[in-house]
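Researcher: Predict the fold of DUF1559 domain-containing protein.
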Amino acid sequence: MNEPNPFDSPEAYTGKPEPKKWWHFTVVEWIVMVLIIFVLAALLMPAAKMAKTSGRRDWSANHLKEIGIALHNYHDLYGTLPPAVVTDAEGRPLYSWRVLLLPFLEQQALYDQFDLSQPWDSQTNRPLVEQMPYMFESPFLDPTENPGMTSYLAVVDPEGKRTLMLSQEGRAFDEVPCELGNVAMVVEQIDQAVIWTKPEDISPFELIERPPIDQNDHAYYAVLFGDASVTWMPEDDPQQLRACLLCKEFAKAGETSAYE
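Model: Structure tokens for DUF1559 domain-containing protein follow.
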């Protein structure tokens, strides 16, 4: 005799779905799992940080490279590098070399908005701070917290003329007795960011005397040399830094400085 088919009628169906089987962890297993997650996170975090830092360095180096090419194009047109500080007829500071560089960074429209007869913080020029070109942005600075701030500073000798960039006058490359690729022109100084239009940079002496910054993204910073090449230099190696900040050959031409 054949057994009745349970699907012949609703009344005949007595089957029930089997309950799902959930995996139950013991307390020890949960602890082991959490420890494994923490170990994996600890192993992956340095690699992630290294990748992030490498990306920031590439970004910064590319910006400095663009600035270096623009400085060379300025030199090709005018025969000298721009002065670090643009002054009026009485010698009062007006604005930075970064403003003069705008047409060579494809920022002619922004350049045309400046009143070049007024200082950077005048009623006309001050609002333009917010329009800082991306080339002056640092990947190590949060633009929302540091609007209009740049960390790319010219190296300017306040005691003489042994740097490529001079304070209030331009300098021709053929006046420089040392190899352009051995002398710093612009450095990235993350902890001394300035408003990009403000005529403020950094002296080689101040740069050397700064305490080193270790164990973070800033342990190295980018240096733009006179030949428009860019390299990364450790902040905790003052001898390596000292060697590229000033052109020592200027001393032979009568330039003196406390740097020696």
